[in-house]
Specification:
Blueprint (H helix, E strand, L loop, with lengths): L3 H20 L7 H13 L14 H8 L5 H15 L1 H5 L3 E9 L2 E8 L1 E3 L22 H5 L9 H25 L7 H22 L4 H22 L10 H5 L17 H8 L8 H19 L6 E3 L5 E3 L15
Antiparallel strand pairs: 1-2, 2-5, 3-4
Helix pairs in contact: 1-2, 1-4, 2-3, 2-4, 7-8, 7-12, 8-9, 9-11, 9-12
Length: 332
């Protein structure tokens, strides 16, 4: 645990490091991770104490930087920068959360966009939304270790990570905006809950790396419930049907919603649910899942609700911890 003496020690180093980075005209928003790296490599003289202390090698320093043990140091350094420059200057006011978290044996930088309030009411400030994805819904697990990973090219792996960022952002958008939708009937309430349940179930199936066909079916059902919710909000009766084309064509937005035509029929979706995917490849199943999830977020734009997410995508990147070619003098 970081005590006051360690906090002062970190502060002294941050004063020195930040001055050096400022002289090199590194933007304040880019200095936190670079400062972490310089601090670890320059301020740490050994691991352990007394005769059992181990001199830090490059391998040990890198391992420590990417370990759970470094989390407290990162928090202190991040707080130092926030206190020095303010959150708006560091993060541009766009991000509700901007931090580094350990994931699958390495650090990942996560940035989550703020909620945009489009109608202020006395209670709006109390609306909260969890900025994380539940462990069992974290589709990055599939990205890191999907079925037949060895059969995918490097380009495919890069594409999966890019897709996963967009999908996590879409799921967060759907959940956040459904919180304050206008839901005048019991059916509307039921559909709202079902949309979240199906979307979460799809992500869990992917995280388990067992059934992408089933994941697509869950998303297909979420889209169906969303269309029926939109019909209710627009004062229209919804047919007792799983036909997405029939549902969308009852809405005035139909001609602007293109993704529905790329999805499967209801009967095909049910077949996929039980693993009857024929000759469909993992890549094709992933594309279907992605199309349905991003389409769900697109439909959310047409809901009557009081909170919108800022038009930014949640970022999930490997942070740049590479040291700068600078000489760092010891603090006094």
């Amino acid at each position: 645990m970081i005590d006051d003496e360690a906090r002062r020690f970190i502060g002294e180093w941050m004063e020195l490091i930040d001055k050096l980075l400022a002289a090199k005209q590194i933007p304040a928003a880019n200095r936190v991770l670079i400062s972490c790296n310089i601090f670890v490599r320059e301020a740490i003289v050994g691991f352990g104490s007394g005769e059992e202390a181990i001199e830090p090698s490059e391998e040990l320093l890198t391992k420590f930087l990417l370990s759970e043990s470094f989390r407290e140091f990162y928090v202190e350094i991040s707080d130092w920068y926030t206190n020095r420059y303010g959150a708006d200057r560091l993060y541009g006011g766009e991000w509700a959360l901007n931090c580094v978290v350990p994931f699958a044996g390495e650090f990942m930088e996560i940035q989550i966009p703020v909620l945009r309030v489009i109608e202020k009411t006395p209670w709006m400030a109390k609306v909260q939304f969890a900025s994380h994805v539940h462990d069992d819904e974290n589709i990055f697990g599939w990205v890191k270790s999907p079925p037949n990973w060895e059969a995918f090219s490097t380009d495919d792996q890069t594409k999966f990570e890019r897709d996963a960022r967009a999908i996590c952002s879409a799921r967060r958008k759907v959940k956040a905006e459904l919180l304050t939708t206008s839901h005048p009937t019991d059916d509307a309430n039921e559909f709202r809950s079902a949309i979240v349940s199906h979307s979460s179930a799809a992500a869990r199936l992917i995280q388990l790396r067992e059934n992408l066909g089933g994941a697509y079916w869950e998303c297909h059902m979420a889209v169906e419930k969303m269309l029926k919710l939109l019909l209710i909000q627009n004062g229209l009766e919804y047919p007792r049907s799983h036909d997405l084309d029939l549902l969308i064509n009852k809405l005035a937005i139909a001609e602007n919603i293109k993704f529905i035509s790329k999805l499967l029929s209801a009967s095909e979706a049910v077949s996929y649910r039980y693993g009857n995917t024929g000759q469909t490849t993992w890549l094709q199943l992933w594309e279907l899942y992605k199309t349905a999830t991003l389409g769900l977020a697109e439909l959310t734009d047409h809901l009557k609700c009081e909170v919108r997410l800022a038009d930014t995508v949640m970022n999930w990147n490997r942070p740049d911890f590479f040291p700068l070619p600078i000489d760092v003098p010891q603090p006094n």
